Task: structure prediction
Amino acid sequence: MVVGLQSPADATFWSIQGRTLFLIIPLLGTVLFAYIGARRLTPLLCAQADSRFDHPLLRLGNVLKFWLGQWRHPRYRFAGAIHILIFGGFILLATRAFTLLIQGASPNFVMPGLTGEAGRVYGIITDYAATIVLLCMVIAIVRRLVFKPARYAVPARHGKGHPIDAIFLLVLIAILMLADSLFLATRAAADAQQGLAIEALAAFSLPWFLTKVLLSTAVAKLQFVYLGAYLTHEMTFFFLLCYRPFGIQFHVETSLFSIHFAKLDREILKPVRWGVSDGQLDQVKSFGVKTFEDFTWKHMLDFYSCADCGRCSENCPSNAVGRALSPRFFTIKARDYAFRTYPVFSRSKGNGKPLIGSVYSEDEIWSCTTCGACEAECPLLVEYIDKIVDFRRGLIDEGNVPQSLQKPLKALESRGNPYGKMEKKRAEWATAKDFLQACRVKNLEKSNGASTLYFVDSITSYDDRMQSIGRATARILDHLGENFGILGAAEKDSGHEARRFGEELLFIALRDHNTDAIKGLGVQRIVTSDPHAFNALKHDYTEVPPVEHISQVIARAVKAGKIKFSPVKEDRVYVYHDPCYLGRHNQIYDEPRDVLDAVPGLKRLEMKRCRDRSFCCGGGGLMLFYEPKEDERMGVKRVQMAAEAGANVIVTACPFCMTNMEDAIKVAGMEGKMSVIDLAELVDQQIVREDSKLDRSAAILAAE
Ligand code: SF4
Ligand code: SF4
Result:
């Protein structure tokens, strides 16, 4: 009489000894996977260089935090919890799966370290893990088929998604879990019937339930199911391994590397070509991305690593207002292209055709506001801004500049501002008669001796409405006793937007001009009221003194008791709108809020989308000149969000946000119900001035 069940290794399958079959399957599976993996690597080998091998400890920290620790997943609570459970289950079950595979050839194999009590505890933990993973698969399938969260939808303008692929893979994982549990359960049921010692199974786990169900099944049948479960497990395991590189589940293999090589300094745009200095740019034959092979290898790896979860697009303002761009589909289209042009079972190596026109439209590329919401959300740290900017560099290189951008870009080149206004008028905002009574701003071009430079930038210098932000900033600095001045006609646009619109050479010219002008002043620090200038001076410029946004200066002064506020008089409700280049790109979230909360009587609420989930107002700089096809304006959406939060005043800290939202209020017909004010304007308005400037400032503010 046979005691216990015959092991898969000792059984015979289609006249093949199990021991042999279960050596052949893993061998074939591994070789096939290695071949598929190598083919998938082919485009990466044809790609542009990328510098991702620095800071190994920081990178390891990212892997522990974002890959192993699943840091970003709980941003979506339910889906995040499901993913963490599946991921945790997989990690726990990995050893059990490998043990099972080896037992096909060596039935008594036990993983070192998992004998005796340790093995029993591990067995119980993994019984629960398999159960939880199976349940999560069922939930995920039901979610995708029945509840269909909006972020999984595929709008017609983006072509096709891969919903069936996702469901098929969920089903395969469910089969793997079932086969694993059935294998344990049949053996336990047979042992129980034959009076043998039963391997402890976790109470109420899937193997435990299956054992209960199978207890009265004849041993001969159990033997059949036992071997069938093993074979199913083995075949599914290797099928999954080799099938994953053909779809979204490839991220299981690639995400670890993608996170390890993720960009560490997200605020700094990638250079035109890694390893090519600004001085060598004239030797670069082609700028930016035109063909697939113009992407860097890391950017290609991103395409493989996207899990198609849709979080980026759900948070993308461009997608929200119906523009051509959806980051999720930006990636999916690139991955589909890579799979199509570098097929696994052919020696084809891409087609070298331009991507614009065949995969992407120009409008798609110009639609991005570089707000960074997609990158802040992606659990796998997929990058977008560098890719989009690289595409724009490619378009500019070929002279494909949208009509509406040609004039401002030309004006930037000739006059140093996108409006084409005279350089000598740049400081006129500081010469208004009323303003001069309260505050005199040194023009450092003409007089020396300031320790702080107020970098005004173009919109605040030239736009009539935004000049009020400049004057408020100057009055605040004056109130704080700062020895400050401006560059006047010697200041040119910071070039922030020119760079993000792909005009790298123009940016370099503007940067070098401003750097020389600033260095000549001998100032110790720079203050600006424009987050775009702040971001440029802080990250794009390398040889200028430290820079602060005015909100940081005010917050510090409030904390030190150098600023006192009078109470707000009207009973209004305020919300703070985080400008993308202050918040997401520079993590300045608390200072503006601290300042607002220090104003007596100011009632402040938060919008649902705030801080790193802030919704872009429509974009700054040159975005003001570009008119993409869209269903509605981002600014309109944003003021509606403020209204939904119950506010009637939006406070922002960026002249571009001010422009977009003031326009949006008019477009949405919300005049009288909603207003916008810059933080500097509000502070200037509420400051308690103890000298005679008080009355003059109040009078000036009333006039403005
Ligand atoms: S940077 Fe902003 S606008 Fe551009 S793709 Fe990402 S979320 Fe969309
Ligand atoms: S890029 Fe990231 S957030 Fe967007 S769909 Fe892919 S995995 Fe999700």
